[in-house]
Amino acid sequence: MSRRFRKQYGCPVELAVDVLGGKWKTVILARIKEGPLSYGGLRKAIPGLSDKVLSDKLRDLIELGVIEHGGAPSDRKVYALSRRGRDLAPALEALYHAGTQLSPDLGVSFAPLSPGHDSN
């Protein structure tokens, strides 16, 4: 892993936030948590994310061991949560729930999920 982390953190939340770094990794993980997705499936599921950022974040998440990809070289790669990524599922579900609770007060709506994905 090329990314280096500090040897000591103040608390586990600080490390988790450092690993996830920014909103896009968390959003990608939340989408993949619902089931494996191809690159194109992720692009459709997260329209506000550019190709470059998606590629960079996928590479980071693979390097961190949070997601894995499968498929023969001639096939489309499919991205899925690794064991380490599945350990993050409760945190992703808590963030999903928090966003759901906040949305009415903030007047925010959500784009529908792509077919085949549940809501959380």
Automatic annotation (TrEMBL):
Residues 11-107 form the HTH hxlR-type domain. It holds the Pfam family HxlR. Keywords: DNA-binding, Transcription, Transcription regulation. It comes from the Bacteria. SUPFAM superfamilies: Winged helix' DNA-binding domain. InterPro entries: HTH_HxlR, WH-like_DNA-bd_sf, WH_DNA-bd_sf. One of its GO terms (molecular function) is DNA binding. PANTHER family: TRANSCRIPTIONAL REGULATOR (PTHR33204:SF29), TRANSCRIPTIONAL REGULATOR, MARR FAMILY (PTHR33204). This is Transcriptional regulator. It comes from Allosphingosinicella deserti.
